[in-house]
Amino acid sequence: MNDYEVVVKVPASTANLGSGFDSIGMALQRYTTVKMKLANQTKVNLIGQHQQGLPMNKQNLIYQAADYLCRQAEIETPQLEIEVESEIPLSRGLGSSGAAIIGGMVAVNTLVGTPFTKDEIFQLASELEGHPDNVGASLFGGVLVAAKNKENKFTYVNFSPPEQLKVVVSIPDYELQTKEARGVLPEQYSREDAVYALSHAALLSAALMRGDFKAMGEALNDQIHQPYRKHLIPGFEEILENGKNYGAIGAAISGAGPTIIAFTSQSSERLILYIKQVMEKYNVNAQTIEIPIDYNGVVCKINERTFEKLEN
Ligand SMILES: Nc1ncnc2c1ncn2[C@@H]1O[C@H](COP(=O)(O)OP(=O)(O)O)[C@@H](O)[C@H]1O
Ligand SMILES: N[C@@H](CCOP(=O)(O)O)C(=O)O
């Protein structure tokens, strides 16, 4: 165990990118910062507007993620003092839960002597979250493409998307729990839908790697989750249909929603203006802005507790 404070800065993420349901994610420059140190009793301090109502005890997801990692390492989970500041709004489809899991795991992993590598943390975080797209993007930055095998092991490829790619998000002022938005999806799909899904996801990976925005425009299209979620997200269908006339490569539901994401390789102003108009038309209060892509993923720093050591 180490007697210092660990500071972990974790980017937000947008998952799926249309056709990459539960397999493709991209990191964005909005951050959750977790400070963690050993303590006599566990407590969680929440700072800032985006965490209202979250538990301030061992029920907090950041502690739960730390506890999960320690149990997998067969280490007794220490009492922890955790301070969290977050710019990622909850349950909007920008990966707040994935960032919390990565924050808790990376911080405690450092505190307890680094039992796991980054790749192993990716496995653990994907298991806990249930899908790898958010946690992988938050951990590695850029674009993350991953697949789960029958033994529940995740294989991934991580790469930087083209520099010209810009991301516009429209973040509504209402929440949609990922659990609820997963609940509306069918259990089974036809072969036609399966072939549509795998061909579009494959095309999307290739288009993102190559920077082929024309192919990306087709590749973003999805038949697996968006048709079943779109009724929960007013304005989405219109933006999906017409966004291309305002400079969008294409649009998608960000994660499980309700945030809408649109991609462009041009200046984003015209697209932002258009999306704002659509949201107004549907009476949705939303913040529509460009958010830069995060290319680095999680960053972990150690603050020595020399002053506290002297006092003890
Ligand atoms: N900073 C945080 N600290 C603790 N728990 C968090 C934090 N951020 C998110 N969570 C947990 O994740 C839930 C939101 O997850 P989810 O519905 O999947 O939405 P999102 O799209 O934001 O990941 C919150 O209700 C909370 O339980
Ligand atoms: N693949 C998941 C992604 C959920 O992302 P979130 O940011 O909404 O938690 C899904 O589509 O359910």
Automatic annotation (TrEMBL):
Domain GHMP kinase N-terminal: 60-142
Alphabetically ordered keywords of this record: Amino-acid biosynthesis, ATP-binding, Cytoplasm, Kinase, Nucleotide-binding, Threonine biosynthesis, Transferase
Enzyme class: transferase
Binding site for ATP: P89, L90, S91, R92, G93, L94, G95, S96, S97, G98, A99
EC number(s) reported in the record: 2.7.1.39
Pathway annotation from the record: Amino-acid biosynthesis; L-threonine biosynthesis; L-threonine from L-aspartate: step 4/5
The GHMP kinase C-terminal domain, residue ranges: 206-278
InterPro entries: GHMP_kinase_C_dom (IPR013750), GHMP_kinase_C_sf (IPR036554), GHMP_kinase_N_dom (IPR006204), GHMP_knse_ATP-bd_CS (IPR006203), Homoserine_kinase (IPR000870), Ribosomal_Su5_D2-typ_SF (IPR020568), Ribsml_uS5_D2-typ_fold_subgr (IPR014721)
Matching PROSITE patterns: GHMP_KINASES_ATP
Pfam families assigned: GHMP_kinases_C, GHMP_kinases_N
A molecular function GO annotation: homoserine kinase activity
Function: Catalyzes the ATP-dependent phosphorylation of L-homoserine to L-homoserine phosphate.
UniProt name for this protein: Homoserine kinase
Organism (species): Pallidibacillus thermolactis
